[in-house]
Write a structure and sequence with these properties.
By secondary structure, this protein is mostly beta strands. The protein is 5% helix and 37% strand. The protein has a 5-stranded mixed β-sheet, with no helix packed on it. The protein has a 4-stranded antiparallel β-sheet with strand order 4-5-6-7, with no helix packed on it. A hairpin with a 4-residue loop joins strand 5 and strand 6. The relative contact order is 0.11. The N terminus is likely disordered.
Amino acid sequence: MRNFISLFIILSGVFCSCTNHTKSNRASFAKESFISIDLEKNKEVSVYDFFSEVEIIPLETTSNSLLTFLMGTPDRVVLNEGKYYFMDDKQQAIIIFNDDGTFLNKMDYKGMGPGEYISVRDFNINRFTGNIEILSPEGRYINIYDASGKTFIERLYFPSDMPVVHLFHHLSADIYVLLSCAGSIEMLFYSRKDNQFVRNNYNLPEWIIRTVYRPSKNPFYVYNDTLCFKQNYNGDVFTVSPFDYELKPRYCWDFGKNNFDLLSTFPEDESINFYMDLSKRISMNYAVLFLIYKENTMYYMTRFKF
């Protein structure tokens, strides 16, 4: 049996225009950044209206290259310099393939020794150095390897007074942006040079962790060398400023009466079962769970539940 990478993009009647915002938590967005969507329209389109070709790449199957996540739902996948990097949460490993599907390496270094990690919660390819960086929340550090994943370079320890962090990306050659989901959800910025961190004003209450609207596994992406942050519960997208560490409104989806405001719709401090039951019913009336984001010079693309 072979593994496959497959990409299916379904676009259903996306019509863009400007409109006034109505939600108080979107007051900082400029009028022109609102993208109006009419969910009553369902225009049939072909994937070839948006893409010139669709390619399926069979991944080489060896005893080391097998992926354990459900097909089509990788825990995290990064394409960089002609290589695919898959994070496999179950195996706690990073598996690397060439762009033709050839297996290259499996970073399976779980342990307590030099160059090993306690766990893999997130990873990135540092766009300033080309190195592979693996975040281990339990160890409160990032392990750094060369681009092949075969050579351990160094370990970057976080300050002892910094909250445990679970997701990260590179804002600049020195600054890391970090997301902590230990209790309340907050954003931090760490200077490697100074070994210090600061917080910005992004903060969501602790009870959100008990819902399906916690941050996605991939809340950051880079477009034109600009770091962006995507809010999965309502689809708002922000630019992360390297100057004042604040979130600058980039664009947001406006579904009119179907807009979802998490903080005003959900009561605080309920049980997990309460939130799960309410979450099932929420998508009957609201557009929620924006887990997939892409953009290029012509389109914004997303996938959500409704």
